[in-house]
Design brief:
The complex is a heterodimer of chains A (304) and B (244).
Chain A lengths: L7 H18 L4 H20 L12 H5 L18 H18 L4 H13 L4 H8 L11 H26 L17 E7 L14 E6 L5 E4 L15 E4 L7 E6 L4 E7 L9 H7 L1 H9 L3 E2 L9
Parallel strand pairs in A: 1-6, 6-7
Antiparallel strand pairs in A: 1-2, 2-3, 4-5, 5-6
Chain B lengths: L2 E6 L8 H10 L25 E8 L5 E8 L8 H4 L7 E3 L6 E3 L8 H7 L6 E2 L6 E2 L5 H5 L5 H5 L5 E5 H16 L6 E2 L7 E5 L3 H4 L16 H20 L1
Parallel strand pairs in B: 1-10
Antiparallel strand pairs in B: 1-8, 2-3, 4-5, 6-7, 9-10
The chains are: A alpha/beta (304), B alpha+beta (244).
The structure holds iron/sulfur cluster (3 copies).
The site of one iron/sulfur cluster has 12 residues of chain B, from helix 1 and helix 5.
């Protein structure tokens, strides 16, 4: 299968402008932005260089897909992303030093992890499974650091494969709230203007896209409904926001007590990178949690 | 990086949402007007109407009447003749970041007629109260806050697109090809020289006298506007320098 070209220079530029705009707008978040910014940029670069989906061309059963069988559930290779372990040692050489710089509190652990990967004490295969939530033990490295680092290492490869897989189902209806590629839960949503080439009135508020927490695929979803339980009752749906930042909000549901962050980009001249946007929405995330709502899925920084 | 707006007149329905949105955002006072039997209202651009949807109708050879809509405003020329026409250094400035041509309060000290006639698109107007010369400022306040210009945001037909100039040029080229299929005379007005690029489906002159800088069909001759912009401006500058 042919792989699609990714516009990474544009994505990188977008990350950089979004970061610098955010730290001008919210100086209090500068430490967080300077910690995660280089990581997001390095991840984008790795994603560009990553191989994408190299396996056999997929045969998507449109009917099953329509019923909710996401792409990976339809593959014959065991329902997962392709093994990227061969690339992880290289990725670790790039990403771990950046993470050490950014997160001094866990720098010592990350050094140990890097050494274990380099020496082969932690095999690439074990590292890959740790990236998908399996336990992996390296002396001196906490479970939490291991999970964080390993999932950051596999993410560029997962995202790159997902881009190819998403292209396979473009245009097919997908009313579900889980990811059409990997079945993951959304941790972010974006209202985007969509350039329609029709002769009709265009939706002013833009369409709602949910964004997968594991592979960053975005898919359209009903605007007014809770992705947690499907509730569409206006009385049950709550929007939390900071009046000073009207384009950012947390869409919460009183019925199932879930929330998902939302960037309303309809009026924005430049739509910021969604990861950077989610990062700047951390105060909102905290506020939602304090009010008793739970995220549908976490961000890497949610638990820090 | 320089910004641009593509105004695709083939999508415009003359709803005037942009005209009203602009006036609202700028908080301009109402102006008395009267029905003159045309949809175009007020009749012309003014100090409190820096965006105006122009409306004209033309009879086709087959006897049908065709409507032409043109949401008119400053083109934010890359090398703005009005700026060269100014006598003060900073009465008219060009924002480095966006390329927007902005009239400051110092325009009150400029010769209005000189500025107005140096604009090939007949855009500048005089505010009788403040004596300032006014026109569209590309919503520079909004753009600096990462918001779309008000007119672009207001357009329910998606006729206007704001973005990086390089992206807008690409989009303009794609749209031109699509529109030219059924409208061989379609063109992008003065694309190389302006930031606000109009896609028209027919001869620009049918939309508005000043849809393009030079609507005359006599290439080779300089128009009055060109003379004013190109010849007088350096002359005025030179005089100023001589006078110190
Ligand atoms: S359109 Fe006229 S007013 Fe606007 S920048 Fe060009 S010359 Fe100046
Ligand atoms: S950019 Fe702003 S000032 Fe200019 S026409 Fe549009 S709304 Fe009016
Ligand atoms: S808002 Fe859009 S459709 Fe309406 S007049 Fe302006 S450009 Fe035309």
């Amino acid at each position: 299968m042919q792989t699609t070209a990714v516009e990474t220079p544009a994505a990188l530029r977008n990350i950089e402008t979004a970061l610098s705009r955010a730290s001008t707008d919210i100086p209090a978040l500068t430490p967080l932005l300077t910690a995660f910014g280089p990581l997001l940029a390095a991840r984008a670069r790795l994603r560009e260089a990553a191989p994408g989906w190299t396996g056999p061309a997929l045969v998507i059963d449109a009917e099953r897909f329509g019923q909710g069988a996401f792409v990976l559930a339809q593959t014959e290779v065991g329902g997962g992303f392709e093994d990227m372990s061969a690339h992880l040692t290289g990725a670790a050489r790039t990403l771990l030093p950046i993470m050490e710089q950014s997160f001094p509190a866990i720098a010592a652990e990350l050094k140990l992890l890097g050494a274990a990967i380099a020496s082969g004490a932690l095999t690439p295969k074990a590292l890959a499974s740790a990236g998908f939530g399996d336990a992996a033990a390296v002396p001196g490295v906490s479970e939490q650091t291991m999970a964080f680092a390993a999932s950051e290492l596999v993410r560029p490869f997962v995202e790159r494969q997902a881009q190819d897989l998403a292209a396979q189902v473009k245009g097919l209806p997908w009313p579900q709230t889980c990811c059409p590629v990997c079945g993951g839960a959304p941790n972010m949503s974006v209202l985007r203007r969509v350039q329609e080439d029709g002769e009709f009135l265009q939706a002013h508020g833009g369409r709602r896209f949910l964004r997968c927490s594991s592979c960053s695929t975005e898919w359209t979803h009903k605007r007014v409904s809770c992705p947690g339980c499907g509730c569409e009752e206006p009385d049950e749906l709550l929007v939390l926001r900071d009046p000073a930042r009207v384009h950012e909000r947390a869409d919460a549901c009183k019925r199932c007590k879930a929330f998902v962050l939302c960037l309303d980009s309809g009026e924005l001249a430049e739509v910021p990178d969604p990861d950077v946007a989610a990062l700047t929405m951390l105060p909102l995330e905290i506020q939602a949690k304090q009010q008793g709502f739970a995220p549908l899925a976490e961000h890497p920084w949610s638990s820090l | 990086m320089p910004k641009a707006i593509l105004i695709d007149t083939t999508k415009c329905t003359a709803c005037r949402g942009c005209q009203v949105g602009c006036k609202e955002w700028k908080n301009y006072p109402p102006v008395a007007t009267k029905q003159r039997g045309t949809h175009q209202n007020p009749p012309d651009l003014g100090p409190y109407n820096v965006k105006l949807v122009r409306f004209s109708e033309h009879m086709e050879s087959d006897g049908t009447v065709k409507w032409y809509f043109f949401p008119d405003a400053c083109r934010h020329c890359l090398d703005a003749p009005c700026k060269s026409g100014a006598s003060l250094e900073d009465s008219i400035i060009q924002d480095k970041e966006t390329g927007a041509v902005i009239y400051t309060e110092k325009t009150a000290k400029e010769n209005f007629e000189a500025i107005k006639s140096s604009c090939p698109y007949d855009i500048p107007r005089l505010d009788p109260k403040t004596k300032r010369i006014v026109k569209c400022d590309m919503c520079i306040d909004r753009v600096r806050a990462n918001l779309l210009p008000m007119c672009v945001k207001s357009c329910a037909m998606g006729a206007m697109t704001f973005g990086e100039r390089s992206d807008i040029l690409k989009l303009a080229a794609t749209r031109l090809v699509a529109v030219q299929k059924n409208n061989p005379k379609a063109q992008l007005c003065d694309m190389e020289n302006v930031s606000i690029i109009y896609l028209v489906a027919d001869a620009p002159g049918k939309y508005h006298k000043y849809a393009v800088a030079d609507a005359s069909d006599s290439p080779g001759y300089m128009t009055r506007k060109e003379m004013l912009a190109g010849v007088f401006a350096p002359l005025r500058k030179a005089t100023k320098q001589l006078q110190g």
